[in-house]
């Protein structure tokens, strides 16, 4: 009653043993593919983690630098500006990690929150009535009177260009990890599991427990079993090329590191622009939002204070170098994996599975 290991000579196998063999080859094939995938998946998942850590380090540096700008140059509004600064960098982090948001909405929301503070603490430091309605009016007015000039738009352009590649790289790496997971758990067809039993276990039914499959026979069986997986070859090569393109984009002149570290400078220029145009802005705001309450005597703390360079350069350089090194190591490894899916049958037939240095091997029917 044997279905797979039929042979003219007497056999010690039963139909139940054939069923056990089929379960064994499915388990072994999954384990073999998992072992092949392990290093590749480890590299991808490891790089996602390493990239996120390096990115968070750069983001913290840029946020600290921006906070220091307010504490040193714009002390009257430093405390109130802390929350908008925190929100801006949280939004940037979420964008990089793939959230449904945009750089433009994050930057413009920040400048919407910033304008009431600049207007009431720097341009008109005597204002006492910063009610919810008046604050909202100032935020809406910002979009019309453009108090910060071209600086918000320039910041959006610079950040969008540099953060896009980072966002895409994270998404591409996650996709790569999903592809590998899917191929690990690809179900073997009934024909495939029967062919594997015939190749690996039918010799046992003749008492030939030490004989192994011939190399060519193994390749034919594995290529048949893994035909659907091998079809990923062209797309996988394209995927590696995309990763290469994205890492090169990140390392180009519009670098992520430079864009993040320059945020404080763009904000500073924007505030200076608003201060220099203070009288015109006040006249327009008075027409739209009305005149707020003033304290007796204008507190003239609107003096423009020169910004001191924040001395955290060493931290930035270390994070910058770390990220560049990680990119380089990772893409070099991934380039070597271009043929991963094309050569998967060859790799599974390598090692202990087949008989290489012997004059005899199993061809599916007999010892040859």
From TrEMBL:
Its main location: membrane. It comes from Sterrhoptilus dennistouni. It holds the Pfam family Glypican. PANTHER family: GLYPICAN (PTHR10822), GLYPICAN-5 (PTHR10822:SF19). GO terms for biological process: cell migration; positive regulation of canonical Wnt signaling pathway; regulation of protein localization to membrane. This is GPC5 protein. The gene is Gpc5_0. Signal peptide: none annotated. The keyword DNA-binding does not apply. It is found in: Cell membrane. Cell surface proteoglycan. One of its GO terms (cellular component) is extracellular region.
């Amino acid at each position: 009653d044997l279905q797979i290991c039929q042979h003219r000579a007497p056999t010690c196998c039963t139909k139940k043993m054939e069923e056990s063999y089929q379960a064994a080859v499915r388990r072994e094939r999954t384990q073999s593919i998992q072992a092949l995938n392990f290093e590749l998946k480890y590299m991808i998942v490891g790089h996602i983690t390493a990239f996120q850590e390096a990115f968070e380090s750069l983001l913290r540096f840029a946020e600290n630098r921006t906070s220091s700008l307010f504490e040193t140059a714009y002390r009257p509004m430093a405390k109130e500006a802390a929350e908008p600064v925190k929100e801006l960098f949280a939004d940037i982090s979420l964008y990089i990690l793939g959230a449904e948001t945009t750089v433009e909405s994050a930057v413009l929301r920040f400048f919407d929150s910033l304008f009431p503070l600049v207007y009431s603490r720097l341009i008109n430091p005597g204002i006492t009535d910063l009610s919810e309605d008046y604050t909202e009016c100032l935020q809406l007015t910002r979009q019309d009177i453009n108090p910060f000039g071209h600086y918000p738009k320039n910041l959006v352009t610079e950040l969008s260009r540099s953060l896009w590649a980072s966002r895409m790289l994270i998404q591409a790496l996650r996709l790569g990890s999903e592809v590998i997971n899917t191929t690990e758990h690809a179900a073997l067809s009934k024909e495939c599991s029967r062919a594997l039993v015939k190749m690996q276990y039918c010799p046992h039914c003749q008492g030939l427990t030490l004989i192994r499959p011939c190399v060519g026979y193994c390749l034919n069986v594995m290529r048949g079993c893994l035909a659907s997986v091998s079809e990923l070859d062209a797309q996988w090569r394209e995927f590696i090329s995309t990763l290469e393109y994205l890492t090169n984009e990140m390392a180009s002149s519009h670098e992520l590191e430079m864009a993040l570290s320059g945020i404080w400078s763009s904000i500073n220029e924007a505030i200076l622009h608003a201060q220099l145009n203070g009288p015109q802005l006040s006249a327009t705001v008075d027409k739209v939002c009305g005149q707020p309450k003033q304290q007796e005597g204008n507190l003239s703390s609107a003096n423009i204070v020169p910004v001191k360079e924040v001395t955290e350069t060493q931290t930035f350089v270390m994070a910058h170098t770390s990220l560049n090194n990680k990119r380089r190591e990772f893409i070099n490894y991934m380039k070597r994996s271009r043929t991963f899916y094309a050569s998967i049958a060859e790799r599974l037939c390598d090692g202990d599975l087949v008989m290489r240095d012997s004059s005899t091997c199993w061809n599916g029917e007999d010892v040859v």
